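Entry 12.
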Amino acid sequence: MTLADKVRAHKLSPSATLCASGFNLVGADSPAIEAMTDFARVNAVSIGAEAPVDEANARMISRGVRLLMVVGPDERVLGLITARDILGEKPMQVAQARGGKRSELTVGDLMTPVGSLDTLHLGDVLKARVADVLDALKALGRQHILVEDIDPVTGLPRVRGLFSATHIGRLLGVPVLGFDLPRTFAEIEAALAN
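Predicted 3D structure (tokens):
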């Protein structure tokens, strides 16, 4: 039996419509893990600290993400950089403080270093609800928070995934756009209240 015998192609029906998922894919009381981007299932998009900021921006656009993990040559996490870091006021402030140009800045100049990154432990995430993660993001004033666990092979800590307020908003059916974090949380909270 060949593959063609198991799976046969045919022409799309002229009356076919596009399948639409439910409006809300998660709710406030849904398990938090349902809203996590799990790096065991989805490849994390990364970049080196020495890369120019314009390259980081282009990588975000091409991969459809707003956050890059910054890694060293040994794949050890050095930090992260977000679209807000690249497109906000920070690049001009850093360039002016150094007496240089924005085009001369690297990812390492703008990234949030690993020592400043807040994380949640996967064990806690498995017991949490989506609303709990949103509360944590709001309390920290962050758009993103990483999730950490222990690699079962090496026994060392690893970044297992992340939560994004924008992604959670989309899963809740809220069209969240832009960098205005207070507005993002207000829109999400309004959707949860309905």
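Annotation: The chain has a mean pLDDT of 87. The first strand starts at residue 37 and ends at 38.
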